[in-house]
Amino acid sequence: MSSNAASAIEEAKRAAAMAAVRDNYPKDAKYVGIGSGTTIVYVVEAIKNLAADLSRTSFIPTGYQSKQLIVSAGLTAIEFDALPEGTVLDISFDGADEVDDELNCIKGGGACLFQEKIVALQAKKFICVADSRKLQSRLLSSWKYIPIEVAPIAAYRVLRKLKELGSVNPAIRLTTVPKQGPLKTDQDFFIIDAPFPHPLLTKKDVAAGIDGSGKDGHWEVEALAHAIKQIAGVLEVGIFAGPTGLQAQARGAVGGQKPIAAYFGKSDGTVLVRKALQ
Ligand SMILES: O=C[C@H](O)[C@H](O)[C@H](O)COP(=O)(O)O
């Protein structure tokens, strides 16, 4: 990628972050979740630039990088397990590797997904921020695999089970120096990257009569996430699907995995906003 193209992508991420924070950051927020990755850096920058008193706000990190980001920005980090009992986060911001028409997301490209999911699930609202390359009508269109966090002791068994579900050549992710072996997550677990041969179906596809049960290799997003989560040794799946926080609250639950809105920055500085159906 040329340096011009790379800087256009960075500007796209920054534009998305600024718009997402401007439109959604709650006045007097007490608890704010901060995701992981390269785009979230611009979210923290945008929060810092708000004309708001942030001294009474606690920011909940989703891993090592996220915590460093919060602390380096001079904000107050509080670990998820130190939150007072019953705390609901006002909002959580995070990036994504791919987002479909129904705002289902693939996450974990940077090896963070477990903490991101528990933080999103504890938030009233989850806002996704990305550049426009991430917006595809179906998951597994441009991004080719599902990241899955697994216990090292079960990794080979999980690989076998993933093949039974139709994954083609799932693999344990290695560090950038392969002789150092598998990459370790913030939980000291492994990541398995599992490609599947077809883009994932949405609820709308299934409502239109397409079989998404995986029988002929075609999976609906939530059905696949559920099938993978059932494999013993899987800590979490890098698919964020199901209800949004607002939909969950309408049913008396706290948060949801799916964003209520996703912001996609373009290289010309414009931002496309997709909102979930309420
Ligand atoms: O594992 C990393 C996280 O799920 C990230 O939020 C995701 O990979 C998107 O990262 P980026 O903002 O760097 O594209």
How are the secondary structure elements laid out?
Elements: H1 3-24, E1 31-34, H2 40-48, E2 58-61, H3 64-72, E3 76-77, E4 91-94, E5 98-99, E6 105-106, H4 114-121, E7 126-131, E8 145-150, H5 155-164, E9 171-172, E10 190-195, H6 203-207, H7 221-229, E11 234-237, E12 239-240, H8 245-250, E13 261-265, E14 271-275
Parallel strand pairs: 1-2, 1-4, 2-3, 4-7, 7-13
Antiparallel strand pairs: 5-6, 6-12, 8-10, 8-11, 9-10, 13-14
The structure holds ribose-5-phosphate.
- Residues in β-strands, percent: 15-25%
Q: What spatial form do the alpha-carbon principal axes imply?
A: globular
Number of domains: 2
Largest sheet, strands/sense/barrel? 7 strands, mixed
Provide mean pLDDT, rounded.
95
User: What ligand species are in this complex?
Assistant: ribose-5-phosphate
Give start-end ranges of low-pLDDT stretches: none
Q: Can you identify the CATH class of the largest domain?
A: Alpha Beta
Please tally the helical runs, counting DSSP H or I stretches of 4 or more residues.
Answer: 8
Instruction: Give the SSE string.
Output: HEHEHEEEEHEEHEEHHEEHEE
CATH architecture identity of the largest domain: 3-Layer(aba) Sandwich
EC number: 5.3.1.6
Family: Belongs to the ribose 5-phosphate isomerase family.
GO biological process, one term: D-ribose metabolic process
Pfam families: Rib_5-P_isom_A (PF06026)
Describe what you observe in this structure.
It is a single chain. The protein has two domains: 1-135 and 241-275, Rossmann fold (3-Layer(aba) Sandwich); 145-239, Alpha-Beta Plaits. A seven-stranded mixed sheet has the order 3-2-1-4-7-13-14, sandwiched between helices. It has eight helices and 14 strands. Helix 1 packs across helix 2. It has helices at 3-24, 40-48, 64-72, 114-121, 155-164, 203-207, 221-229, 245-250; strands spanning 31-34, 58-61, 76-77, 91-94, 98-99, 105-106, 126-131, 145-150, 171-172, 190-195, 234-237, 239-240, 261-265, 271-275. It is an alpha/beta fold and 278 residues long. The chain starts with a helix and ends with a strand. The structure holds ribose-5-phosphate. Ribose-5-phosphate binds at residues 35-39, 94-97, 107-113, 116.
